[in-house]
Amino acid sequence: MAGHSDASNVVQALVRLDDVPERLPELVFVLVILGPEGQPGRLEVRRTTRNESAVAAYSSIDRLVDACGSGQPWAQVARDRLLEACRELGIGIVAFDAVLDLAPRYPEIDSRDQPPLEPVQPLDDQDGFLYVPSRPVRAGQQIVELELQPARNGRPVLLAYTSPELLAAGCGPYQPWVAINGDELEAVADEAGAHGVLLNPVLAEESRHAAPVRDWTSRPAIGGE
Questions:
Q1: How does strand 222-223 pair with strand 143-144?
Q2: What was the pLDDT predicted at 162?
Q3: Which fold, 14-96?
Q4: Cα 73 from chain centroid?
Q5: What residue spans define the domains of the chain?
Q6: Which of 186, 206, 184, 181 shows the shortest CA–CA distance to 196?
Q7: Which residues contact 164 (CB under 8 A, 6 or more apart)?
Q8: Measured between alpha carbons, how far is 73 from 112 in angstroms, rounded to an integer?
């Protein structure tokens, strides 16, 4: 997480490093520059109006998307790791939950256009679960149908999220979901008929549910006898 970019200026919500432990949550979403393999790499370092180096961090993925658009590369990091990286780079300011002057923005994306990825290692502090879109689930229900999405090749893929907040940000507020053990992701995907897994994708608006899902009848996909 090193390096600088020639990005536009920060316009508000500046936090000095000394105040970061009190102002930022333990986990934040930071702007990054994509590496050569298309994976999140270096911190995206910006300049304030006083020509001070700064990095941008957000308390939630929905705030990041609102401020920077769904095409903005990002990474979730621990607050202490962010502080460490800022000190290594000589950065003294974090723009927290700030609206930035991005000209131009990264193009808006539908993450289903990305090729399916192999499951990645979970965050160190993850609870061991992944959260996947499903049909509505009643209390005590033992058979669940997962909602798959078509990839660019037309084959269905399973979406998986590392937190309920990321699922809501990626699929919208009306998306039902179930939690599964992260170790069982591959088996669950196979049983549901998925040809791959996308981790923390952002769906286009037209691919999301526009209202609460109330269809309780569905074909069994996972669980049960």
A1: antiparallel
A2: 86
A3: Trna Endonuclease; Chain: A, domain 1 (3.40.1350)
A4: 10
A5: 14-96, 111-223
A6: 186
A7: 131, 177
A8: 15
